[in-house]
Each structure stands twice: as structure tokens, then as C-alpha cells.
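Hello Y.,

Per our agreement to keep a running log of every chain we model this quarter, I'm adding this entry. I've kept the format consistent with earlier entries: sequence first, then predicted structure.
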Amino acid sequence: MFNFDEANKKGKEAMDTALKSYSDVTKGFQAIAAEAAEYSKKSFQDGVAHFETLAGVKSFEAAFELQSSYVKSSYENFIAEATKLGEMYADLAKTAYKPYEAPVAAAAKTTSKAAATATAA
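Predicted structure for the entry above:
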């Protein structure tokens, strides 16, 4: 017999899980967006400062050295930021999947039992 109270309870649990998951994902995307905006701002400020310094250089050798060091530091900063954002996206994916981990495992277990029973018959 169908139990309406049990179905209502399961439906409420599923809705609560979905809302919490959406909330966590939204917070994760906001953190990523804030990090990207901060990096962009810092990168732009570093570029402006570099070109102001470059404008005051008197020799080609000094300009070349300054430019080389700027490119190297910009590249290193970019790699560090890309790594950090990659880790943030990985954490976001783990956070988004976490509420569904137990139900998916239970469904997989039920499906494998059904498949084993069907195969044995």
C-alpha cells in the first residue's frame, strides 16, 4: 500500500537536499567569480605599473630586462591563478555531488542486485 506520509517525507528530504546543493553551488560560483575579478584587477594594476616603469627606462637593455622579468612574473602568476581556480572548480564539483552520493550509491547497489538476480534466473 502506498504511504502518503512516507512519500511526503521523502519528497521534503529530496527538496531540502536540492536546495542545499543549489545554495552551495551558488556560493562556490560566487567565490570563483570574486577570485577571477580580484586576479583581473591585480593583473591590470601590475600591467599599468609595469608600463609606467618601462616608459621611464633610458636604455634598450634595461627595457629588455624589465620586459623579460615582467613577462616571467606574469606567466608565473597566471599559472598559480589557473591552478587555484582549477582547485576551486574541483571543490565545487565535489560539493555539488556530495548530497547525491548516498542515493546514487544505493541506487547502484539495488541495480546490481537486480541484475545479478536476473542473470541467475
